[in-house]
Amino acid sequence: MGLQEDIMTALKNAMKAKDQTVLTALRAVKSAIILAKTETGAGDELSEEQELKILQKQVKQRKDSAAVYLEQGREDLASPELAEAEIISQFLPEALTEEEITKVVVATIEQVGAEGMKDMGKVMGMVSKQLAGQADGKTISNIVKANLS
Fold this sequence. Notes:
The chain is mostly helical. It contains 7 helices and no strands. The N and C termini lie far apart (41 Å).
């Protein structure tokens, strides 16, 4: 429960500092965690993997929203979204570089014996589990496709 405690501590600090951007981002994360607890019937605890998935989802939502706002020329709406994404990202483990992801993908392809695009699902499943919280699915998918084709 370390991640939830970290978020609660940061939330309290943001309240004391009256930092609205941080407050908004962390309240959304806290809400998503509580929602996940009630949804899954997991009781009091979520696994660290589930917590990381929630955080990744929150960051992705913010970045997607910002991209849409920027497409529409609404930088005034995009900048708070990007700021919130940055705040939430602080709680995620450090992201791997593409080179590091490629090493893991190549090793997994050799381990599974994948020989083409038909084996992409197997490779994606294993790599996604292995790199949970350290790389987003889109990046992993692109690297797997490049190595299998």
